[in-house]
Amino acid sequence: MRISDLKAGMRQVNLKAKVVNVSEPREVRTRFGWARVADAVIEDETGQAKMSLWNQQINMVAAGDEIIIENGYTTEFRGEVQLNVGKYGKLKKVG
């Protein structure tokens, strides 16, 4: 799958991308308690997308890294499609 194919509400998203940047993590309160979240921008040859990184995922990647997302899902946040790994998905750094 390519970034240009992403639409809100998709499940079982598998793609390879490059991390363009990662924001500073911030603390947010969720229904499960406090968590850390950072926003990342990823890209492939078809475009860019925003991605949420939660807790331990934040330290797994940095700008310039090639990553693979397996079994991710998409949502719409503030009018933009956002990619999420979720608890059933996997985030892997390539190389």
**Assigned CATH class:** Mainly Beta
The CATH superfamily title: Nucleic acid-binding proteins
CA radius of gyration is: 12 Å
Tell me the count of domains: 1
Shape: globular
Mean pLDDT: 95
Low-confidence stretches: none
Give keywords.
single chain, 95 residues, mainly beta, OB fold (Dihydrolipoamide Acetyltransferase, E2P), five-stranded mixed β-barrel, 7 strands, 59% strand
Description of the structure:
- The protein is an all-beta fold and 95 residues long.
- The protein has a single domain, classed as Nucleic acid-binding proteins (OB fold (Dihydrolipoamide Acetyltransferase, E2P), Beta Barrel), CATH 2.40.50.140.
- It contains no helices and 7 strands.
- The chain has a 5-stranded mixed barrel with strand order 1-3-4-6-5.
- The protein is globular, with a radius of gyration of 12 Å.
- The protein starts with 12 loop residues before the first strand and ends with a strand.
Please outline the helices and strands.
Elements lengths: L12 E10 L3 E5 L2 E12 L2 E8 L11 E12 L2 E5 L5 E4 L2
Parallel strand pairs: 4-6
Antiparallel strand pairs: 1-3, 1-5, 2-3, 3-4, 5-6, 5-7
Provide a brief overview of the structure.
The chain has strands at residues 13-22, 26-30, 33-44, 47-54, 66-77, 80-84, 90-93.
